[in-house]
Amino acid sequence: MAVDLQPQLLEILACPCPQHGPLRPGLGDDAQADYLTCTSCGRGFPVRDGIPVLLLDEAVGGPAPGAAGEG
After folding, report:
1. Are 29 and 38 in contact (CB under 8 A)?
2. pLDDT digit string (tens) for 20-67?
């Protein structure tokens, strides 16, 4: 199931990491995944019951732990 969020909401959501960027629906090559992916760091944030979970602890992918600029 693909992420179904209002375009206005997608415009204001951003990744919570210090190098945050806009989020796009899908995860990597899977545009139908229930995730929002940061266009800057590449982290994927799950969308559960239509609610984006923008917590770094819940993110998948992205830079390796301890990478420069983290924390």
Report:
1. no
2. 889 988 877 777 788 999 988 989 999 998 889 999 999 998 776 655
Which DSSP string do the residues of the chain spell out, in sequence order? ------HHHHHH-B-SSTT--BEEESBTTBTTSSEEEETTT--EEEEETTEE---GGG-BSSSPTT-TT--
Strands 51-52 and 35-38: unpaired
For residue 10, give the nearest of 48, 37, 49 by alpha carbon: 37
Model pTM? 0.78
Q: From CA 42, how far away is CA 25, in angstroms rounded?
A: 12
Structure tokens at 67: 């990478």
